[in-house]
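Progress note, sequence design subtask.
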Protein backbone atom coordinates (compact mmCIF):
# COMPACT_ATOMS: atom_id res chain seq x y z
CA UNK A 1 0.00 0.00 0.00
CA UNK A 2 2.80 2.39 0.80
CA UNK A 3 4.20 2.29 -2.71
CA UNK A 4 0.74 2.57 -4.29
CA UNK A 5 -0.05 5.66 -2.20
CA UNK A 6 3.31 7.19 -3.07
CA UNK A 7 2.69 6.55 -6.77
CA UNK A 8 -0.75 8.17 -6.61
CA UNK A 9 0.66 11.40 -5.20
CA UNK A 10 3.71 11.29 -7.47
CA UNK A 11 1.33 11.27 -10.46
CA UNK A 12 0.26 14.73 -9.31
CA UNK A 13 3.90 15.98 -9.16
CA UNK A 14 4.29 15.66 -5.40
CA UNK A 15 7.79 15.03 -4.13
CA UNK A 16 7.83 11.98 -1.88
CA UNK A 17 9.64 11.18 1.37
CA UNK A 18 9.34 7.63 2.67
CA UNK A 19 10.27 6.12 6.03
CA UNK A 20 10.71 2.39 6.52
CA UNK A 21 12.88 -0.15 8.32
CA UNK A 22 13.98 -1.75 5.03
CA UNK A 23 16.64 0.22 3.16
CA UNK A 24 16.55 -2.06 0.10
CA UNK A 25 12.81 -1.60 -0.38
CA UNK A 26 13.16 2.16 0.05
CA UNK A 27 15.92 2.36 -2.55
CA UNK A 28 13.86 0.39 -5.05
CA UNK A 29 10.77 2.51 -4.39
CA UNK A 30 12.69 5.74 -4.92
CA UNK A 31 14.06 4.45 -8.21
CA UNK A 32 10.57 3.47 -9.41
CA UNK A 33 9.04 6.81 -8.45
CA UNK A 34 11.74 9.01 -9.93
CA UNK A 35 11.94 7.10 -13.21
CA UNK A 36 8.18 6.81 -13.65
CA UNK A 37 7.00 10.24 -12.54
CA UNK A 38 9.93 12.66 -12.81
CA UNK A 39 9.64 13.76 -9.19
CA UNK A 40 12.08 13.87 -6.30
CA UNK A 41 11.84 10.85 -3.99
CA UNK A 42 13.88 10.37 -0.86
CA UNK A 43 14.03 7.64 1.77
CA UNK A 44 14.88 7.48 5.44
CA UNK A 45 15.44 4.39 7.57
CA UNK A 46 13.62 4.24 10.91
CA UNK A 47 11.41 1.92 12.91
CA UNK A 48 8.04 3.46 13.74
CA UNK A 49 8.39 2.09 17.27
CA UNK A 50 11.78 3.77 17.82
CA UNK A 51 10.72 7.32 18.58
CA UNK A 52 14.22 8.85 18.61
CA UNK A 53 15.06 7.51 15.15
CA UNK A 54 11.60 8.37 13.82
CA UNK A 55 11.90 11.96 15.02
CA UNK A 56 15.39 12.19 13.51
CA UNK A 57 14.03 10.96 10.16
CA UNK A 58 11.45 13.75 10.13
CA UNK A 59 14.17 16.33 10.88
CA UNK A 60 16.14 15.06 7.89
CA UNK A 61 13.02 15.23 5.71
CA UNK A 62 12.46 18.87 6.65
CA UNK A 63 16.09 19.68 5.89
CA UNK A 64 16.03 17.91 2.54
CA UNK A 65 12.54 18.68 1.24
CA UNK A 66 10.95 21.30 3.47
CA UNK A 67 7.51 21.43 5.04
CA UNK A 68 5.18 18.45 4.76
CA UNK A 69 1.85 19.07 3.04
CA UNK A 70 0.50 15.52 3.35
CA UNK A 71 1.36 12.94 6.01
CA UNK A 72 0.32 9.32 5.50
CA UNK A 73 0.89 6.95 8.42
CA UNK A 74 0.71 3.34 7.25
CA UNK A 75 2.72 1.34 9.81
CA UNK A 76 1.36 -1.52 11.92
CA UNK A 77 2.30 -4.73 13.73
CA UNK A 78 0.06 -7.57 12.55
CA UNK A 79 0.33 -10.16 15.32
CA UNK A 80 -0.54 -11.98 17.82
CA UNK A 81 -3.40 -13.90 19.36
CA UNK A 82 -4.54 -12.88 22.83
CA UNK A 83 -3.37 -16.14 24.40
CA UNK A 84 0.22 -15.72 23.18
CA UNK A 85 0.59 -11.98 23.75
CA UNK A 86 2.53 -10.73 26.76
CA UNK A 87 1.95 -7.32 28.31
CA UNK A 88 5.38 -6.19 27.09
CA UNK A 89 4.66 -7.28 23.52
CA UNK A 90 1.27 -5.58 23.62
CA UNK A 91 2.87 -2.28 24.62
CA UNK A 92 5.62 -2.67 22.00
CA UNK A 93 2.96 -3.17 19.33
CA UNK A 94 1.09 -0.09 20.50
CA UNK A 95 4.26 1.96 20.06
CA UNK A 96 4.08 1.18 16.33
CA UNK A 97 0.32 1.03 15.84
CA UNK A 98 -0.44 4.23 17.75
CA UNK A 99 2.65 5.87 19.25
CA UNK A 100 4.47 6.24 15.95
CA UNK A 101 1.39 7.85 14.43
CA UNK A 102 1.18 10.38 17.25
CA UNK A 103 4.88 11.23 17.09
CA UNK A 104 4.80 11.54 13.28
CA UNK A 105 1.82 13.85 13.52
CA UNK A 106 3.58 16.03 16.07
CA UNK A 107 6.50 16.48 13.67
CA UNK A 108 4.37 18.03 10.92
CA UNK A 109 1.60 19.83 12.82
CA UNK A 110 3.46 23.03 13.74
CA UNK A 111 4.24 23.89 10.09
CA UNK A 112 0.78 22.87 8.93
CA UNK A 113 -0.82 25.05 11.60
CA UNK A 114 1.47 27.94 10.72
CA UNK A 115 0.60 27.63 7.01
CA UNK A 116 -3.10 27.03 7.68
CA UNK A 117 -3.16 23.99 5.39
CA UNK A 118 -2.30 20.31 5.51
CA UNK A 119 -3.62 16.77 5.33
CA UNK A 120 -2.98 13.96 7.81
CA UNK A 121 -4.15 10.50 6.76
CA UNK A 122 -4.00 7.30 8.79
CA UNK A 123 -4.40 3.74 7.59
CA UNK A 124 -7.10 2.29 9.82
CA UNK A 125 -8.75 -1.07 9.70
CA UNK A 126 -11.96 -2.93 10.18
CA UNK A 127 -10.55 -4.34 13.42
CA UNK A 128 -11.05 -0.90 14.99
CA UNK A 129 -14.80 -1.49 14.68
CA UNK A 130 -14.93 -5.29 14.62
CA UNK A 131 -12.11 -6.68 16.85
CA UNK A 132 -10.52 -9.99 15.90
CA UNK A 133 -9.17 -12.32 18.60
CA UNK A 134 -6.40 -13.47 16.27
CA UNK A 135 -5.12 -9.88 15.99
CA UNK A 136 -5.70 -8.52 19.46
CA UNK A 137 -2.92 -5.91 19.50
CA UNK A 138 -3.77 -4.75 15.99
CA UNK A 139 -7.46 -4.49 16.89
CA UNK A 140 -6.67 -2.43 19.98
CA UNK A 141 -4.16 -0.33 18.08
CA UNK A 142 -6.50 0.49 15.23
CA UNK A 143 -9.27 1.38 17.70
CA UNK A 144 -6.92 3.74 19.55
CA UNK A 145 -5.64 5.21 16.28
CA UNK A 146 -9.20 5.85 15.08
CA UNK A 147 -10.06 7.54 18.37
CA UNK A 148 -6.92 9.69 18.21
CA UNK A 149 -7.68 10.71 14.62
CA UNK A 150 -11.25 11.73 15.44
CA UNK A 151 -10.07 13.90 18.33
CA UNK A 152 -7.29 15.37 16.22
CA UNK A 153 -9.80 16.24 13.49
CA UNK A 154 -12.04 18.07 15.93
CA UNK A 155 -9.16 20.25 17.10
CA UNK A 156 -7.43 20.96 13.80
CA UNK A 157 -10.13 21.10 11.14
CA UNK A 158 -10.96 24.71 12.17
CA UNK A 159 -7.27 25.48 11.58
CA UNK A 160 -7.36 24.23 7.99
CA UNK A 161 -5.90 20.77 8.56
CA UNK A 162 -7.81 17.79 7.22
CA UNK A 163 -7.47 14.64 9.35
CA UNK A 164 -8.98 11.37 8.17
CA UNK A 165 -8.75 7.59 8.43
CA UNK A 166 -8.92 5.10 5.56
CA UNK A 167 -10.35 1.97 7.20
CA UNK A 168 -9.68 -1.22 5.25
CA UNK A 169 -11.97 -4.10 6.22
CA UNK A 170 -10.15 -6.86 4.34
CA UNK A 171 -6.81 -8.25 3.21
CA UNK A 172 -5.00 -5.98 0.79
CA UNK A 173 -4.36 -7.83 -2.48
CA UNK A 174 -4.12 -6.91 -6.18
CA UNK A 175 -7.18 -7.42 -8.39
CA UNK A 176 -9.60 -7.48 -5.47
CA UNK A 177 -11.77 -4.76 -3.97
CA UNK A 178 -8.84 -4.27 -1.60
CA UNK A 179 -6.39 -3.64 -4.43
CA UNK A 180 -3.67 -1.27 -3.11
CA UNK A 181 -4.02 1.00 -6.15
CA UNK A 182 -7.76 1.36 -5.56
CA UNK A 183 -7.16 2.08 -1.90
CA UNK A 184 -4.48 4.65 -2.77
CA UNK A 185 -7.07 6.56 -4.79
CA UNK A 186 -9.09 7.07 -1.60
CA UNK A 187 -6.14 8.81 0.02
CA UNK A 188 -5.90 11.17 -2.93
CA UNK A 189 -9.62 11.86 -2.88
CA UNK A 190 -9.50 12.70 0.82
CA UNK A 191 -6.59 15.06 0.28
CA UNK A 192 -8.35 16.90 -2.53
CA UNK A 193 -11.80 17.15 -0.97
CA UNK A 194 -13.15 20.70 -0.70
CA UNK A 195 -13.10 21.88 2.88
CA UNK A 196 -16.88 22.00 3.18
CA UNK A 197 -17.03 18.29 2.25
CA UNK A 198 -14.20 16.95 4.40
CA UNK A 199 -14.74 13.38 5.59
CA UNK A 200 -13.09 11.99 8.69
CA UNK A 201 -13.26 8.35 7.64
CA UNK A 202 -13.58 6.33 4.46
CA UNK A 203 -14.43 2.67 4.91
CA UNK A 204 -13.42 0.13 2.28
CA UNK A 205 -15.64 -2.91 2.86
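Output:
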Amino acid sequence: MGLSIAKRFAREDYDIAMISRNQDHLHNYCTILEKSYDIFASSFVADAGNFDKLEFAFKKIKQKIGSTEVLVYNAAVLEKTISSLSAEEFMDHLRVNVGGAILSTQQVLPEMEKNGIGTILFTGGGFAHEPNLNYVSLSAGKAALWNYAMNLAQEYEPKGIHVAVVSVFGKVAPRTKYDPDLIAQKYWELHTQPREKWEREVRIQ
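The CA atoms of residues 71 and 109 lie 10 Å apart. Work on this subtask will continue into the next period as scheduled.
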